[in-house]
Amino acid sequence: MTLSRVATVVADPGSVDAAIASRFSCRAFLRDRPVPRATIEDILALASRAPSGTNTQPWKVYVLQGAARDALVEKACAAHDAMYADPALAQEYREEYDYYPTRWVSPYIDRRRENGWGLYGLLGIAKGEKDRMHAQHQRNFRFFDAPVGLMFTMDRVLGRGSLMDYGMFLENVMLAARARGLHTCPQAAWNGFAKIILPHVGAGEDEMLLCGMSLGYADLDAHVNTFDTPREPAASFTRWVE
Ligand SMILES: Cc1cc2nc3c(=O)[nH]c(=O)nc-3n(C[C@H](O)[C@H](O)[C@H](O)COP(=O)(O)O)c2cc1C
């Protein structure tokens, strides 16, 4: 590394803050506005500057566009519909790792409920409207109409610490996207469909699906994109030990 890199001054700190503050989980994209391959390459190259324990760089990324994207969408939506018709099929589509807790407790369950019902409420979907909830959930498997779908895997042999590294990489992807006028939605919804996705993208059996992500230009007219998520004040999760 050159010392000039050490001396780099972030000339416009406000734009870093703006990238962080303006990132949100976008759930409606412009289907017909493509993302140039060079832009995706730039995003991934920059994201790979993320730190990782002993520089292990655990990330593996599959970029789906065009026919490959569309074919995966059709397979996943068919599986999702089949599971809706026959809930017993859920046994076949197990997540490879517990992204969510197996036992929900407060305050996390409260935040989860607030998030879920907040989104459905915004869309006018009432409790009990199962078909509409299913349809909205299925938007995940259409990448919310984003032209680019990303799938992230990690070698199974790696440890839990690599998940921390991976999270930093994912945030970098989302922030680098923001810097280029793009939006994203990270998606654990895909995780249950690993056995469809991994062969589809040509991933090896030694790889574990961590999540998917939609990438594209936001639909600025979509009501769903007005969904606002609160945060606890920093003072509530910070203890000053002096
Ligand atoms: C790893 C990860 C997986 C997620 N999976 C989904 C998903 O499958 N579908 C979805 O609509 N949102 C998903 N989200 C988005 C969260 O609901 C969202 O980050 C949270 O509610 C905060 O909102 P914000 O991202 O708009 O700030 C996921 C977020 C993360 C970090």
TrEMBL record:
Endpoints of the signal sequence: none
Xref: SUPFAM superfamilies: FMN-dependent nitroreductase-like
Entry superkingdom: Bacteria
InterPro entries: Nitroreductase, Nitroreductase-like
UniProt-recorded Gene Ontology molecular function terms: oxidoreductase activity
CDD domains, A to Z: PnbA_NfnB-like
Annotated ranges, domain Nitroreductase: 20-217
Keyword flag Lyase: no
UniProt cofactor(s): FMN
Keyword terms, alphabetized: Flavoprotein, FMN, Oxidoreductase
Pfam families: Nitroreductase
Gene3D superfamilies, A to Z: NADH Oxidase
Family note: Belongs to the nitroreductase family.
Protein name: Nitroreductase
Organism name: Ramlibacter montanisoli
Lineage: Bacteria, Pseudomonadati, Pseudomonadota, Betaproteobacteria, Burkholderiales
